[in-house]
Write a structure and sequence with these properties.
The structure holds two protein chains of two kinds. Chain A is mainly α. Chain A has one domain. Chain A is 64% helix and 1% strand. Chain A has helices spanning 2-11, 15-18, 29-33, 37-58, 65-68, 80-96, 103-115, 130-153, 163-168, 173-194, 198-203, 211-231, 238-245; one strand spanning 25-26. In chain A, helix 7 (103-115) crosses helix 8 (130-153). Chain B is mostly helical. Chain B has one domain. Classes of the chains: A mainly alpha, B mainly alpha. Chains A and B meet through strand 1, helix 4, helix 6, helix 8 and helix 9 of A and helix 1, helix 2, helix 3, strand 1 and helix 4 of B. Strand 1 (25-26) of chain A pairs antiparallel with strand 1 (72-73) of chain B.
């Protein structure tokens, strides 16, 4: 992932020349459509809630839900309503602090701090201030929070190759290691080029009604699904197979 | 100092919620991309809707503190970045 940050930083000064990054402009849907931000954001919120209801009706993964409701609250996985609402409130809390919840931006800030003792200043993160400090510690906090959740649930396991990958590609660590390394690099470089990740450009980005976030979010979900279908061509039933024998909160 | 504590606390809660929702599971992320398990999609849509409703209602009520940040638009970068990110997402499953 950090390799991705430094690769982005190396090409950063040339991006406008290559036509990959135009001069950043403010462009939001309310500005384009000439309506008020508030009413459009509320409309988006209601529309997306309807999409949640539709997705819930169609979800083929629902038949494994029984496993999720087994055990006490601290031991088991939580549903999408409680965790989704909590995540939304965290994004709002970040806005109230005058900050922006974005994980890829956080990694860039963290890399800038890591490079500082070596006297290297990132071209894409030229100054270190309260915002970069908040974002860098955000990333550290995310790992700590997820680890804490795994520890209290008793589901903390070291699983080098996930069972789903193993069942589809029995070559084990070699192929999985290469995929994780390439995936991490591409995800970081792509997020910094495109202005956000699943959190910054989608969950937190769409509600700001920024045109750039819409373009980024729709592109990466489309390409992500395409890549997944090519990778698991004819083998998509493996997902349900693995799920039917795996536990709550397992690293599968 | 406040920025450091604020960032850590916000991140810790967010990380806890992500893990609790099963969003750190490879099978769930691939499940959504392969349309076999839509829980991550439902989680993300719910979070997106709550944020949109919160920011939208705050704007209608005139609460300045919750004014959204505008993400810059820079043309082709979104598509180039989106393609790289999408391939990485499908390969890595995160």
């Amino acid at each position: 992932m950090f390799l991705g940050v430094f690769a982005f930083d190396a090409v950063f000064p040339y991006l406008p020349e290559w036509g990959v990054r135009a001069y950043p402009q403010s462009m939001t849907l309310p500005l384009v459509l000439d309506v008020s931000y508030g009413s459009l954001a509320v409309t988006l919120g209601v529309f997306v809630l309807l999409m949640v209801a539709l997705a819930d009706r169609l979800d083929p993964g629902k038949r494994f839900e029984a496993a999720e409701t087994r055990g006490t609250l601290l031991r088991r996985e939580w549903g999408f309503v409680s965790t989704g609402v909590l995540a939304g409130l965290v994004i709002l809390a970040a806005t109230a602090q005058g900050q922006y919840l974005g994980i890829s931006g956080g990694f860039a800030s963290l890399a800038a701090y890591a490079a500082k003792p070596f006297g290297h200043v990132l071209a894409s993160v030229p100054a270190l201030d309260d915002t970069t400090a908040w974002r860098a510690t955000l990333v550290i906090g995310i790992f700590a929070g997820a680890a804490a959740s795994a520890l209290v649930s008793g589901s903390y396991r070291n699983v080098p190759v996930t069972p789903l990958w193993e069942s589809a590609f029995p070559t084990g660590m070699k192929s999985r290691g290469a995929a994780v390394f390439a995936g991490g690099f591409l995800i970081m470089l792509g997020a910094l080029l495109g202005g956000g990740c699943t959190t910054g450009a989608f969950m937190a980005g769409f509600p700001t009604l920024s045109v750039g976030s819409f373009a980024m979010g729709m592109t990466f979900f489309g390409v992500g699904m395409g890549t997944a279908f090519v990778l698991y061509w004819g083998r998509w039933r493996k997902v349900s197979e693995v799920r039917s024998r795996s536990l709550n909160l397992a690293n599968d | 100092m406040n920025a450091i504590l604020g960032g850590l606390a916000t991140g810790a809660v967010f990380g806890f919620v992500l893990h609790r929702g099963g969003l750190t599971r490879y099978s769930r992320i691939m499940g959504t991309l392969l349309l076999q398990d839509l829980k991550p999609m439902k989680f993300m849509f719910t979070a997106l809707a709550v944020t949109a409703l919160g920011l939208g209602l705050a704007d209608l009520a005139g609460i300045e503190q919750l004014a959204p940040r505008v993400n810059a638009y820079f043309g082709m970068g979104h598509f180039v970045g989106g393609v790289l990110f999408g391939v990485g997402m499908g390969l890595g499953g995160f």
